[in-house]
Amino acid sequence: MRILIADDEKELLELLRYSLQNEGWLVDAVSELNEVKSHLDAFTYGVIILDRTFHGKDSVKELIHYAKQQNPSQPILILSALGSVDDKVQGLEFGADDYLEKPFDVKELRARIIALSRRFSPKILHLQGFDFDLVRQSIQKEGTEIVLSKNEHTLLFYLLNHNSVASRDEIMDALYDNPQNVTPNAIDELVGRLRRKLHPSIIKTIKTRGYLIEI
């Protein structure tokens, strides 16, 4: 998933860029108003994170309007020190889809990003020649249904819905009733089988951290 972060606090911007890239996301971090528009012209984003003010000017209404004109399915989260109820209501009335007050916990920001991406994600994903129906949890290629084992199927749709790097421990907890009896090698073997059945690059290995399906 590609994320745009726009904030004129450069130290915070770099911290957020580093933290979110560690989740396996592609992050564009910009601090000038004209840069935001240039990026919106060039890319479609899974989530857009906007500061309320840029260099003392409240520009968020203009930016939300611009982003939604480019692609109305791009979810927008306002990240701002302006945290009164009226500020939040106004931000949502401008067209934002969520509002998080500064200071904040990066864990909460991550959770909100994932929630937004799920809300706005397409119901059918097209990856590597396959069609993944996230509602029916079915897989097709050129109109033919692809059948997987129970654990392969559960792992695949867990990763498709996870939207960030999933550790082996997280995967074991999601797949097994007694994960303490499962070795990490079992997850690696399961991933290997999925790659052979679907496509070698469908699941990415993020070194020392786990696995990711990049949407």
What is the terminal-to-terminal distance?
A: 5 Å
CATH homology superfamily name of the largest domain: Response regulator
CATH architecture of the largest domain: 3-Layer(aba) Sandwich
Mean pLDDT figure? 91
Number of domains: 2
The description of the largest β-sheet is: 5 strands, parallel
Would you give the CATH topology of the largest domain? Rossmann fold
Q: List low-pLDDT spans.
A: none
Number of strands: 13
Count of discrete alpha- or pi-helical segments spanning 4 or more residues? 8
Q: Helicity, in percent?
A: 40-55%
The backbone outline, from C-alpha atoms, is elongated
Order of helices and strands: EHEHEEEHEHEHEEEEHHHEE
Strand order of the largest sheet: 2-1-3-6-7
Rounded radius of gyration (Å)? 19 Å
Strand content: 15-25%
**Which structural class do the helices and strands define?**
alpha/beta
- The CATH class assignment of the largest domain is Alpha Beta
Give structural notes:
It is a single chain. The chain is of the alpha/beta class and 215 residues long. It has 2 domains: 2-120, Rossmann fold (3-Layer(aba) Sandwich); 124-212, Winged helix-like DNA-binding domain superfamily/Winged helix DNA-binding domain (Arc Repressor Mutant, subunit A, Orthogonal Bundle). The protein has helices spanning 10-21, 33-42, 60-70, 85-93, 106-120, 150-162, 168-175, 184-197, and strands at residues 2-6, 26-30, 47-51, 53-54, 57-58, 76-80, 98-101, 124-127, 130-133, 138-141, 144-145, 204-206, 210-212. The strands form 4 sheets. The protein has a 5-stranded parallel β-sheet with strand order 2-1-3-6-7, sandwiched between helices. Strands 8-9-10-11 form a 4-stranded antiparallel β-sheet, with no helix packed on it. A hairpin with a 2-residue loop joins strand 4 (53-54) and strand 5 (57-58). The mean pLDDT is 91.
